[in-house]
Amino acid sequence: MDDQNKNLILATALSFLVILVWFVLFPPEEPVVDPNAPEVSETTNVPAVDATPLATTDATAPAGGETAVAEAARIKVETEALSGTISLAGGRIDDLKLTQYKETIEPDSPQVTLLHPEGTPGGYFSLFGWAPGGALDFADVPGPSTAWRQVGEGDLTPETPVTLEWSNGKGLTFQRTIAVDADNMFTVTQTVRNASGAEVRLAPYAEVVREGEPSDLKGFFIIHEGAIQQTGGELNELSYKDLRNLDSDDVWGPSTEVTSVAQNGWVGFTDHYWMTTIIPAQNESFKSVLRYEPRTDRYKTIARRDAMTVPAGASASVETRFFAGAKEWEQLRTYEDQGVYRFVDAIDWGWFFFLTKPIFRLLHALNGFIGNMGWSIIVLTLIIKGILFPLAYRSYVSMAKMKELQPEMEKIKEKAGDDRQKLQQEMMALYKKEKVNPASGCLPILMQIPIFFSLYKVIFVTIELRHAAWFGPFQDLSAPDPTSIMNLFGLLPFAGPEPGTLMATIFLGILPLLLGISMWLQQKLNPAPTDPTQAMVFAWMPWVFMFMLGSFASGLVVYWIANNTITFTQQYLIMRSQGYKPDVLGNITSSFRRKKPESK
To answer: CA angle, corner 43, sides to 148 and 223, nearest 5?
Structure first.
C-alpha cells in the first residue's frame, strides 16, 4: 500500500471518527418528580440578599392562583413580530405568538406559540415584582396572582405602552409600565410610591418560569437547549438536566445556583430557535439565579436586584428589558449595538465559533444578494474552495508527482523485501530527492472536517436556515431531503417516508444519492488499489457516507455535493497540468470487471 493511499485512508478514518463522535445523540433524562409531593401553586420565590436580610419567600401564593390567572382580564399585545395578551393577574407576560414564524412549511400551519399561561400544557411565562424586607411582608407587595388594574385603556403596541397599578392599602402604591418595540423587546418599568409615613425596604426582581421540559426538546449534542446566562465575563449554558443537578448555595433550597453579576449580564431560556431573556440595566449589578423546583417540576431563571430603601414620601423605579422571540442574527446584533452585552452569542456558535461566525455572516450576505439560500450555499462552497485552493494545488501536485514516482517506489519495495527499516529509509530519501511530501495528500480532506462541522452548525442552529427554500421539493434546507425513490424523487404526488424513520434511511432521496455518486467519481480519478482490503474499503466508502449523511440537513448535503464536484474538477485539471492524465472512464469500467481467479 503506497503512502498516498495510506494518507487517504487515514483521513477517511479520522473523518468517520469525528463525525460519529460529534453527532452522537444524548437523550435527555426525564425530570424526576415525587408523585407523593404536595401540589404547590406558588410561582415566585425571590428573596433579596443584602446586609440586612429580607424576608425569605417560601410562602405559597393565594389558593386558586391558577384559576385567578385563567379568569383574569387581559391586555392585548400587537407588534409586527408578536401577538398575544398580558394577564392582569400578576401582570404576567404569558401569552405570545411569533407572527412571522409558522410551525411547519405548510400554508395553513399555525404560528409558533412561544409563551403559555401557567397551568396550561407547556406553561412558560415571565413575572416581575418586589420582594419584601424590613417590616414588610408578602401581603404588602404585589405577588404572582395580584389583581392589577389598568390605568386608562388600550392595547399594548409599539406606540402605546400600558400602565398597571396596585395599592396595598397601607400607603404603598405600585405601578408597572410595560412598553414594547416593533420587534421582540419589552421594557418593564416598576415603580413604588411610599406614602406610608415610614421608610420601607424591598427588592425588585424579574423571572422566567418554565413548567417542565419543553415537549419539542431536540436533545442533540450540537445544540444547547436550557438556561443561558451572561455574567459579564462568561457565557454559561446549562441543560435542563444540569439545572436539576445544581448544588444549592442559597436559602431557597435544592437545585439553585446564584451568581453575582457586576454589570453586562442577562439570563433566560433558549430553545433551538427561540429565546426568552431577562436583561437588567447593563450598568447595574444583580444576582443571576438558576433554579429547579422538583415539587412542581418548574425551571426558573431570575434576575434579583439589591434591596433598596424608599424613604417616606419618596418613590423608586427600576427598569428591566425582556426579550421574547426568535434568535435572528440581525435582530440580536441590533440589540447588542443598543447595549445588550454580547447578545449575538445567544446563538450557539459552538467550539468552532471562529469559523461558524464568519461562515454564517458570509452565507447571510450571499443570501441577501442572491435571495436563495440553496444557491447561496453553492456560492459559499465556491468561495471556500477558492480560499483553500493554494493548499489544494500543492496537495494535488504532490499527488501527481507521487504517481510519477510509482515505478521507482515499486523497485524500492522489491529491493528491500521484508526489511521495513530499509524500505522506509529509501522511501524517505526518494521523497527528499524529488521534493515530495507524502502527507500533503490528506491535508485538504483534514481541512474540510472543521469547515464541514461549522457549516453543519450554521445550518442546524441558525433560524435563517429554518424553512429556507431552494427549488422544487426542497423547501426547507434545515430538514432532510424530502424526496425518495418511492415517489420518484418528488415526481409522484405523494410524500416520501417520514424523515428519521428506517424507511427514509433505506429509500434515500436524490441529494444523498448524488452525494454518493460524486464521492465515487472522485475515487475514479485514480486506478483502484491493488490491495484487495484497501480496494474494498474504497469501494464501500462513498455508499457508507451516502447513507450516513442521508438524514442530515439537505443544505449540508448540497454543500457536500458542491464540494465534491469542485474538488473533482480541481484535481482533474491540476493532474493534467502536471502531465498526469487521469483515465476516469477506464477506471470506472475496470471497477466493474470481474477479476479472473488465479490458476493453481
So the answer is: 115
List pLDDT tens digits, range 443-492. 666 777 888 889 889 988 999 999 999 998 899 999 888 888 776 666 66
Q: Which residues contact 568 (CB under 8 A, 6 or more apart)?
A: 518, 521, 522, 525
Question: How many degrees, rounded to 5, is the angle at CA 485 between CA 483 and CA 486?
Answer: 95
How is residue 237 annotated by DSSP?
E
Name which of 36, 43, 72 is nearest 60 in CA terms. Answer: 43
Count the Cβ atoms, other than its own, within 10 Å of residue 126.
26
Amino acid at 306: D
Asked if 551 contacts 499 with a C-beta cutoff of 8 angstroms, the reply is yes
Tell me, yes or no, if the pTM score tops 0.85.
no
Co-location of 209 and 316 in the same domain: yes
The model's pLDDT over 279-319, given as tens digits with 9 standing for 90+, comes to 999 999 999 999 999 989 999 999 999 999 999 999 999 99
Q: Indicate the helix (H) or strand (E) that contains 102.
A: strand 92-102
Residue 318 lies in a domain: yes
Specify the DSSP element, H or E, that contains 414: helix 406-416
- For residue 463, give its domain range: 356-592
Residue 450 grid cell: 472543521
**C-alpha cell belonging to residue 458:** 450554521
152 within some domain: yes
